[in-house]
Amino acid sequence: MTDVTERARDLLGRLLHGHGVVARITEVEAYGGIEDPASHAFTRTPRSEIMYGPPWRLYVYRIHGHHAANVVTGPTEQAAAVLIRAGEIVEGHELAYERRGAVAEHALARGPGNLTKALGITSADLGTELLDPVPVFLGERVETPRIVAGPRVGVRLNADVPWRFWVEDDPTVSAYRRHPKAGAAQPSR
DNA sequence: GTTTAGATCAACT
DNA sequence: GTTGATCTAAACG
Q1: Is the CB of A179 under 7 A from strand C?
Q2: Confidence of residue A119 (pLDDT cuts 50, 70, 90)
Q3: Count of domains forming chain A
Q4: Backbone angles phi, psi at A148, to 5 degrees
Q5: Is the peptide bond before A180 cis (omega within 30 degrees of 0)?
Q6: Residue A48 CB closer than 7 angstroms to strand B?
Q7: Tens digit of each residue's pLDDT (9 = 90 or more) over A11-68
């Protein structure tokens, strides 16, 4: 299969523009779509249909009153997507602080909810073409970072697959939190 | 059956 | 104090 995890690694170190703020992506999670129970695309519905569509479009979903941003990566038959979990603000600090309030600089876009808030991403941006220079889009790679992998944060299902990728030793990366109801950790094999 | 808005609470800062 | 691919309930088709 086309490896979703490769696409996830590929996004690390790239720029993400969001409504006047630019972030360097430092943490992502891969969602294997049709073959991943933790993915919204695991069951095909009108909502998840966007993940079965062309790649490089934005999928936004609500969680805990916040939003989370995903990049649809394709291929279309697999419905895979990559969740953008954290980034470092490299441009538009003023606007980011305005949206986030007084927080430490490294915390401006740490965590999916904070990142979407700092970049001003909401459900209104659902389906945005991320390759066009519209309010939300992907920029070029600014570095080739050293990448570390581990299990995904806060997922109940499939909690042991190492599909979370982040830039090593980056302060904007959030800590690992296992979901309370996820089964006991299984030894990697 | 599916989607969305709010709530909840353990883990993190 | 803050956060979140969870959880439940109500609205929708």
Answers
A1: yes
A2: very high
A3: 1
A4: -120, 145
A5: no
A6: yes
A7: 999 999 999 999 999 999 999 999 999 999 999 999 999 999 999 999 999 999 999 9
By three-state DSSP, how is residue A8 classified? helix
> Residue A25: which domain range?
4-167
Q: Is residue A187 part of a domain?
A: no
CATH code assigned at A155? 3.10.300.10
Domain membership of residue A189 (yes or no) is: no
Tell me, yes or no, whether A147 lies in a domain.
yes
The SS3 call for residue A150 is: strand
Q: Give the CA-to-C1' distance from A164 to C10 in angstroms.
A: 34
Q: Which nucleotides of C are covered by protein (CB under 7 A)?
A: 3-7
pTM, rounded to two decimals: 0.94
CA→C1' distance for A62 and B4 (Å): 8
Tell me the two tokens of residue A138: 């992907």
Confidence band for A74, pLDDT divided at 50, 70 and 90:
confident
- Classify residue A156: in a domain, yes or no: yes
Question: For A88-102, what is each residue's pLDDT tens digit?
Answer: 999 999 999 999 999
Cβ of A99 < 7 Å from strand C?
A: no
Q: What span, in angstroms and rounded, lies between the C-alpha atoms of A13 and A55?
A: 19
Whether A1 shows a pLDDT value over 60: the answer reads: no
Residue nearest to nucleotide B2 (CA to C1'): A45
CA A45, C1' C12: Å apart? Answer: 15
